Amino acid sequence: MFVGLGRAALASLFLAGCTGLNPSYADATGGEGGSGLGTTTRDATGPDPSSPTGPSQTTTSPTQTTLEPTDGSSESTTGMGPATRGTETGSEESGTETMGVIPGDCSTYLQDCPDGQKCMPWATAGDGSWDALACFALEPVDPGEPGEACVVFETATSGLDDCGETSMCWDVNTRTNQGTCVPFCTGSAEEPVCGDGLACAQRNEGVIALCLPLCDPLASDCDVGSACVPDDNGFVCVPDASGPGGAVGEPCEFINTCDPGTFCAASGVLNGCAAATCCAEFCDVEGLDDCAGPSVCVPYYEDGSAPPGYESVGYCGVEV
Predict the structure, then answer these.
(1) CB–CB of 296/269 below 8 Å?
(2) In whole angstroms, what is the distance from residue 256 CA to residue 62 CA?
(3) CB distance 273 to 18 below 8 Å
(4) If pLDDT is split at 50, 70 and 90, which confidence band does 184 have?
């Protein structure tokens, strides 16, 4: 009988696992997009060592969005900084001075920014992964509601979109900068709240906290262009950023850079992984063990610790 990897064991064993999200997703037709989360072109997620569940965890990390100019050339843009906030004081040049927002001084759970602004994840370097929170200007005219189409401005990680304050533009097509408004988790980081059929995916050291659809990794029941990846509360659908790679045994950096039906796991629980993390295959511990030897089907969760409905989820790896 094989013993599953408990949450505490996973937290230490998979410290090198993938936990972040990569905003550059592969499109549904097999192409590879630039940065940003897209409807057809998508992004990936990067490693998040703090996540306690499963043999691997990854963080979402968007890459820079590439816009296509009308002349057919490719041009990258960088995101704008956060909105200014604070009192104005005298300045030698203009007579006023504005105090910028300090990343992390707002909460997407509470939406505690001043009127006309909303708290948003963004990439302080202008590209790459979401790594901070700040207040950004809120779309003043008819902002989008969760589930509605949306647009990002500049890049997928600029912090600028036309969704209302309860959501952010997610799964962005980097050719059109269009995506879908997805709701932020409410409540708190310790006790997040989402609607039925959704789970709060907390990634990138808490910068990302979105209500995403729950899924079954053995059924691969996410929409086309999405992958079912591990989360603290089970498994959720995120944009598939695997592109031409992501096959079983291939190295991976982000949680969403492995093909659907696989996930990014730490090498310590896998056979034949030459990198720190590699893509591993899910398997059904209650079905036939069809893992390729010498790997065996290992329970993803320790006995009794699986969330309801995930008791039979396993992965092809090293017997422990």
Answers:
(1) no
(2) 11
(3) no
(4) very high
Residue 238's domain comprises 9-243
95 domain-assigned? yes
Structure tokens of 70? 């009308």
Residue 276 included in any domain: no
Alpha-carbon gap, residue 85 to 105, rounded angstroms:
11
Residue type, 24: S
218 to 28, 124, 282, 311: CA distances (angstroms): 20, 37, 7, 11
Calpha distance 180→147 (Å, rounded): 6
pLDDT at 92 over 80: no
Whether the CB-CB separation of 64 and 155 falls below 8 Å is answered with yes
d(CA 70, CA 206): 38
Per the structure, the count of domains in the chain is 1
What pLDDT was estimated at residue 174?
83
Whole-structure pTM value: 0.70
Q: 22 lies in a domain?
A: yes
> How far apart are alpha carbons 5 and 14 in whole angstroms?
10
Q: Is the peptide bond before 52 cis (omega within 30 degrees of 0)?
A: no
**Inside any domain, residue 120:** yes
CA atoms within 13 A on the CB side of 104: 5
152 Cβ contact list (under 8 Å, min separation 6): 36, 65, 158, 160, 161, 169, 172, 177, 179
